[in-house]
């Protein structure tokens, strides 16, 4: 090896070593950032699962309430029909009563 090459090799060797150490540190830093991002991803996935489960429960509750509402609506419709039928019967009885009163008034 020529003296000039040996000089540059000895002079640049520490620079290469420092550069290598810097690259190793950068890689460790990137790996730490990646690990942190992976933890954030896991936390977000857990939140998504929790929100999805919440949505499913709310949807189930809504379906149950909708069934109850329809049952109540049907019951209300039935009660309304019964009320109208009773009202019609009462109107008929009222007419018969008025007719009987008129007949009774005529004879007495």
Characterize the structure shown:
0% of the residues are buried. It contains one helix and no strands. Helix content is 97%, strand content 0%. The protein is mainly alpha-helical. The chain has one helix spanning 3-107.
Key terms for this structure?
single chain; 108 residues; mainly alpha; rod-shaped
What's the quick description here?
The chain has 108 residues and is mostly helical. 97% of the residues lie in helices and 0% in strands.
Largest sheet: number of strands, sense, barrel closure: none
Q: Which outline best applies?
A: rod-shaped
- The Rg value, from CA coordinates, equals 46 Å
Bin the helical content: over 70%
Report the portion of residues in β strands: under 5%
How far apart, in Å, are the first and last alpha carbons?
151 Å
* Number of distinct helices: 1
Oligomer: single chain
Order of helices and strands: H
Mean pLDDT: 87
Protein structure class = mainly alpha
Number of strands: 0
Low-confidence stretches: none
Which helices and strands appear, and what pairs or packs with what?
Layout (H helix, E strand, L loop, with lengths): L2 H105 L1
């Amino acid at each position: 090896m020529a003296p000039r090459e040996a000089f540059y090799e000895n002079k640049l060797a520490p620079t290469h070593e420092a550069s290598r150490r810097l690259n190793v540190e950068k890689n460790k830093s990137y790996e730490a950032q990646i690990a942190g991002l992976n933890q954030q991803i896991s936390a977000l996935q857990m939140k998504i699962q929790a929100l999805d489960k919440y949505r499913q429960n709310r949807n189930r509750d809504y379906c149950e309430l909708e069934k109850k509402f329809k049952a109540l609506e049907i019951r209300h419709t039935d009660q309304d029909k019964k009320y109208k039928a009773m009202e019609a019967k009462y109107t008929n009885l009222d007419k018969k009563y008025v007719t009987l009163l008129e007949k009774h008034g005529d004879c007495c």
